[in-house]
Amino acid sequence: MTLVYKILPQTLWDEAKAAGRFDGAPIDHADGFIHLSGADQAQETAALYFKGQDDLLLVAFDADALGPDLKWEASRGGALFPHLFRSLSPAEAVSETPLSLDADGVPQLGLSA
Question: Among 76, 102, 110, which Cα is nearest to 36's?
């Protein structure tokens, strides 16, 4: 199973669970898809975009189960990133992990690529 990850505030995921669907964070709405990361990309994403933010979650999804609306597209540094062109159901989550910050305020994911 290939996992892909979404880093997001706990409150945003709680709202999605209450609504029964996750339509994305503000950056996702702006870009027209839900930004996800592979295991080898998620820690850098956390450092670049989530430094200093607490109450974050790392939510994992099975890439294959997301179906044809998951596209791997060139992004940061030309690397292929998973972009989802539909809403997510919270029931699709494989796991939800609260994140802690290191001394520099960077969320620590503990993933190995």
Answer: 76
Q: How many domains does the chain have?
A: 1
In one letter, which amino acid is 32? G
Which residue segment(s) compose the domain that 50 sits in? Answer: 3-101
pLDDT digits (tens, 9 = 90+) for 72-100: 998 878 889 999 999 999 999 999 999 99
Distance from C-alpha of 62 to C-alpha of 48, rounded to nearest angstrom? 24
With residues binned 3-state (H G I as helix, E B as strand, rest as coil), the percentages for the chain, rounded to 5, are 30, 35, 35
User: Tokens standing for 14?
Assistant: 């709680």
Digit-coded pLDDT (tens) for 21-49: 999 999 999 999 999 999 999 999 999 99
Could you tell me if residue 30 is inside a domain? yes
The CATH number linked to 36 is: 3.20.170.20
Q: Is 42 contained in some domain?
A: yes
